[in-house]
Amino acid sequence: MKLNKFILPVIIVIGFAIYLSLFVVKEINQAIVLQFGDPKKIISTPGLQVKIPFIQNVVFLDRRILSLDPAPEEVIASDQKRLIVDAFARFKITDPLKFYISVGNERVARSRLSTIINSRLRSVLGTQSLATLLSEDRTKQMAIIQEGVNAEAGKFGIEIIDVRIKRADLPQANSEECKPKEKEKQKNSEQEEQKWRSLLLQQQIKKSL
């Protein structure tokens, strides 16, 4: 009877230790095994894994392609026109160890990437005119931006899959500045049309005479 009282707690402790030593890496994750905060092992293969209980812990990182939606950025074009650019990016964690050491977690990584993307938007798009930024030619500029962002993101163990502009709008000041020009253009067009109608009418009158 006394032996049973001794064995039962031992079995419970052993079972609990085994439970704490096992963990599962899902297909969508990659894992870093830490020992007292220091990385000891990188696990990219999904399945059941083992760690030392109470000494080691596990950090899981997403291995899927992730989306990033930075805050809209105001860009000043080369002709001093202002444009509000709303961009988005897709990225992937390619080096878990470098990622953990440099940024630690996804929240910090997103903040750093947003800053880098907006900085590249200002520096690259700022060399182009407003007309270019609003045209299809901006695809070339986005390729340059992606290349520059990738160079910086690589320091964090991140690969930038894509950077694109969702929307580019004129600020209120630019819009108000464009309105008089549009009205003047419309007025000139109407005057030109009225002139041609007058000439056509005069010709018809001469023919009738």
Structural write-up:
This protein is an alpha+beta fold. The chain folds into two domains: 61 residues, no CATH class; 107 residues, Band 7 domain (Tetrahydropterin Synthase, Chain A), CATH 3.30.479. 50% of the residues lie in helices and 28% in strands. It is built from six helices and nine strands. The strands form three sheets. Strands 6, 7, 8 and 9 form a four-stranded antiparallel sheet that branches. A three-stranded antiparallel sheet has the order 3-2-5, with helices on one face. It has a two-stranded antiparallel ribbon with strand order 1-4. Helix 3 packs across helix 5. The longest helix is centred in the last third of the chain and has 37 residues. It is rod-shaped. The N and C termini lie far apart (133 Å). The model has no long low-confidence stretch (mean pLDDT 82).
List keywords for this structure.
6 helices; 28% strand; four-stranded antiparallel sheet; rod-shaped; Tetrahydropterin Synthase, Chain A; alpha+beta; 209 residues; single chain; three-stranded antiparallel sheet
In short:
The protein has about 210 residues and is an alpha+beta fold. Helices cover about 50% and strands about 30% of the residues.
Topology:
Blueprint: H1 2-21, E1 22-25, E2 29-35, E3 38-43, E4 47-50, E5 56-62, E6 66-68, E7 73-76, E8 82-93, H2 96-102, H3 106-125, H4 130-133, H5 138-153, E9 158-169, H6 172-208
Antiparallel strand pairs: 1-4, 2-3, 2-5, 6-8, 7-8, 8-9
